[in-house]
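Chain A, query sequence.
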Amino acid sequence: MKIGFYPGCSLKGTSREYNESVQAICKALDVELVTIKDWNCCGATAAHSMNRALSLALPARVLALAEQQGMDEIVVPCASCYNRLSVTQYELANDENLKKEVVDAMGLPYEGKVRILNVIQMIEKYLLDVIPAKVTSKFEHAVACYYGCLLVRPHKILNFDRVEDPQSMDRIISLIGGTPIDWGFKTECCGAGLSVSRTDLVAKLSANIVKDAADRGAKAIIVACPMCHSNLDMRRPDINEVLDSPIDIPVLYITQAIGLAIGLSVEELGLQRHFVKVNL
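Chain A, predicted structure.
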C-alpha cells in the first residue's frame, strides 16, 4: 500500500527521530510512504503571523505538488504542518478570490482535493487492524496522551477528535497494551513556537503539563507533535527549574510507542536521540 508523505522541516532536522519512527512502523506494517517531490516549508508558526498571502501560498504549493504527482491523500506527521495545510485548504475552498490570488502567486494549478491525514488518522485508517497481530511486547505502561493545540484546533476546520478531551491516541495506546491516564492537560498549550524567544514562558507552561502527568502516575508522555516533544523533552532542564523537584518521565512519539510494542529497536525508532532518557 502506498500513501503520499509530507515530512516538513522538523522531521528532517530537530525531530528526525519522529521521521525515523514513522518510517519504521510503516515499513514493518507494509505501508510505503511516497514523499512529495520538491516539497517546501509550510510556513509553520512564523508565516501566518507575518504575511497572510505567504502563509497560504507555501502550504498550497505542497498540496498542488501532491495533486500533480497523483496523490489522493498525504500523511502529515507534524501537527503544525497538518494544521497549516488543512487551514489553507479550507480557506481556499471557501474564498474563490483568495484561491485565484494564491494560485497566480505560486504558478501551479490547484484543485484542493487531496485528503490530509495527521499521523493518528493514518494509524487509525491503515494500521489499526494490523497492529494487534504484530505486537510482540505489550507497551504495558501508564501514560499521558498529550495532543497539544494544533491537532484539534480550530475544530470547525480540522474536525478531528473532541476538542477538550480527545481519545484517538488513548485508543491506540490501549490497543498496544498501555493504560492512558485521565488527566487535565491533554490539550493545554506547551508554549509552542516561543521555545527560543520566551523559554521562560515555555518552561512554566510545560512544567504544568509534566507535573500533572507525573502526579497522576504516568510513566511517559505520548505526543504526535515535534514542537510539543521539543518543549517537553529538550526544555526539561528549564522545566525542572520551575518545579519543586525534578521530573524525569520521558516523552515519546505515538509512533515510537507502537514501534516498541511491535518489537522494533531503540535505534530504528530514534529513541537514543531524546534528551530525557527513555527507560521503559
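The beta strands are 2-5, 32-35, 73-75, 115-117, 142-145, 179-180, 220-223, 251-253. The chain has a mean pLDDT of 95.
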